[in-house]
Amino acid sequence: MTRLPVADLLSGDSLVVEPNSTLVSSLIKQLEPANMNVIFVNAASKKGNSSLDKDDNLKILPHYGVKYSVQTLEKVIPDASKRWMNWLRGTETCNLMSRLPSDLITSGPAVPVAPAAIEGVPNEISLEHMQAEKGKGDRESELYGTRPSRIAKLPEGHKGLLAFPTVDGSPDVWYRSGWATHSPKAQLHLTLRPLKADSADELPVRDSIRLSVFGNLLAEAMVPKMVDLTATGVSYTVDASSRGLSFTFGGFMPLMPQLIDKVLKEFNNFNGNTSATQSSRFKRVIQEIRQGLETWSSMPITYALQDRNMLLTRDSFSRAESLKALEEVTRESAASSVDEILLSQPMQFTSLVMGNVAEKEANNAVSSFVSGLAMPKGASSKVKKGGKPERVTPVVRITRPIEIRSKNPRPDDPNDAVVLSIVAGVSTVQSRVVLGILGQILHTVAYNELRTSRQLGYVVNAGTSQVSNVQYVSCTVQGNAMKADAVEATIEYVFTHLMPERLANLTDKEFADYKSSFRQDLLQPPQNFQEEISHFWGPVTQGGQCFDMRSNMATFLDEGLKSKKTLASTWADLVHPTEGMRSKIAVKYFADSVPKRPTEEDAAATWSEQGVTGSGLSLLRREYNKTKVFDHVDSGVREQLIKEGGHFPLDLNCGPAPSEKKKAQTQFLRKAAPHAF
Q1: 416 and 386 inside one domain
Q2: Which of 153, 167, 192, 233 has the fewest CB atoms within 10 Å, counting from its CB?
Q3: Cα–Cα distance for residue pair 239/313, rounded to 1 Å
Q4: Whole-number Å distance between alpha carbons of 505 and 521
């Protein structure tokens, strides 16, 4: 709405200030069969006995396999249009009640009832704490305001927080007054995470599915009970997963105590209570989850990316594993999942309160939550030796090239899909900047070559990204112009030929422009208060680390990254090394049957045909016999990779970059990921 003057906000666009009855009447008259399309979904078609099967005009919707037919209304429902028009003209009387199902007919006339007024909306809201203070000398604080501070002392009379031990013994409660953007609302994020050792096993798939079913059932149970309260402008979420139990509350602060009490009351009544869910609802939710796991409605590249991520991160499972585990879930096991899997063990409580709220109100809200959350009998509050919350999600350390050769999971989809990723290692302030700029350059080079020039498919993307604390370079292609093995070769051509060539020819002006573009993205201010609290929530859950990440990145960008040669040498070390192997993951989906992996000579011929020569060809030959090939991805495959390489360190590396005058800039990625070289 920023395009309209403030004075016109209430009268702009969709609001009709002067109703035009003539215009409305003319629009209503257009509601006749001749101007309508009718869609009829025949449930019997799933059983194979649909009348569509006998239709000479039967069609199949591309990509989805849905059978459909386009017919005239007159053919399907004779005289229906005529009756409708006679009703409109008043030449025929319509007894609608006689046409309704018997269970919808009520005694007496059916009279519409306007909804009652929304009650409970606060009449007065103090704006004293709406505006956050701006920081001085810190670029990040200038954008997002002063960082939240940790509350060292509990409010008097509230000892509930002591039920959740912290590693250092102090409450992990954070608070910041106001927003850098403008909003009269406040936000509360609260999470309880299990305390465990670094070597703790990941959650079994059966427990992960139990928690997922619990979340679905809880949401259905709570929504109708919370509707009156949420209509006043407040919101809430409840999430239970392997990482812990999380709650969020948002809205006007005068309503926050009522919101917290209501959510906790409903959660406590539901948690562990088998009778809170009707058998019919449980069966329906299970069926909906099963249907979601059995349906492949997204693009193949989406599932290829999920496979790549499943190899790298714990507590994720294949659809086959999830479906098998789903069969074992009962109402009883779902209802008891949060108590048995999460709350029965020591938990680390962490909270962040931000926005238009005074510190005393924030403390009271947090204490009210903790004291109101019912804990299972016998729950342990003793901190295990070496136990700590998982502040950084472990990432599997890839020690050699991995290749997945699998069939496109979407039925009858004609596309091959390829995801080729090079894992760089644990990020640093320097690597975030350098790989970030390299990602911008790679995106343009790959798109111009693979999409525009070669026209390999309508889905082409490339760049750099990060999972947990680990960075990677990646390129994705989906299309039917070329098979997956050849597509991988074209990506390698981009990696080993076009990118080095582009970096070698990068002008000083282009280097400065890329730095300027990256700086602009880095120092983009938040657009809304949701972005603000998300920005701070990460460092809060990490124990207060990395609040100044962007500032340190900006400092390195301005003072440390002086030469464009840093980009070229970094790319060469990571993606085009002259010796050793890369930490590479290639996920290939084939539209038809999965072909046998080409021999080294056949593969080399394909590489050469797509333009890979010289040192690039030597690199791929070195990697060929060391590549581990799988025909699917699941937690078992991930476990094999963990046995080979373990996990990356859980370091965050977000402090100021070391002086680049004392050491070569090209070495920082080697320190971040020595295994990759």
Answers
A1: no
A2: 153
A3: 19
A4: 24
Tokens of 272: 């562990």
Going 270 to 275 to 278 to 283, the CA torsion angle's sign is positive
Do 618 and 651 reside in the same domain of the chain?
yes
Of 374, 371, 369, 342, give the one whose Cα is nearest residue 353. 369
Cβ-Cβ contacts under 8 Å for 668 (sequence gap 6 or more): 428, 430, 431, 434, 657
Contact between 456 and 481 under an 8 Å Cβ cutoff? The reply is: yes
The single residue listed with the structure tokens 């999380």 is 246
Q: How many CB atoms lie under 10 A from the CB of residue 340?
A: 15
Q: What DSSP string runs through 616-644?
A: HHHHHHHHHTT-EEES--SHHHHHHHHHH
- How many other CB atoms are there within 10 angstroms of residue 359's CB atom? 15
Co-location of 175 and 259 in the same domain: yes
Are residues 545 and 607 located together in one domain of the fold?
Answer: yes
Residue 46 pLDDT > 70: no
Of 115, 187, 180, 640, residue with least CA distance to 404: 640
Please give the Cα distance from 671 to 427 (Å, whole number): 10
Q: Which domain holds residue 161?
A: 127-202+214-271+338-390
> Which amino acid is it at 446?
A
Say if residue 418's pLDDT is above 90. yes
Same domain, 166 and 49: no
Q: 419 and 358, same structural domain?
A: no
Span 49-72, pLDDT tens digits:
556 666 777 888 776 677 888 888
The Cα 329–Cα 325 span in angstroms is 7
Backbone angles phi, psi at 404, to 5 degrees: -110, 120
What pLDDT score was predicted for residue 675? Answer: 39
pLDDT exceeds 60 at position 168? no
Report helix, strand or coil for 12: coil
Element housing 173 (H / E): strand 172-177
Find out whether 118 and 231 touch, Cβ atoms under 8 Å: yes
423, two tokens: 């894992």
CB of 149 closer than 8 Å to CB of 175: yes
pLDDT tier at 100 (50, 70, 90 boundaries)? low
399-429 exposure pattern, b = at least 16 Cβ within 10 A, e = fewer: bbbbbbbbebebeebebbbbbbbbbbbbbbb
Checking DSSP bridges between strand 402-407 and strand 584-590, what pairing results, if any?
Answer: parallel
Q: How many CB atoms are closer than 10 A to CB 287? A: 11
- Structure tokens, 87: 């009703």
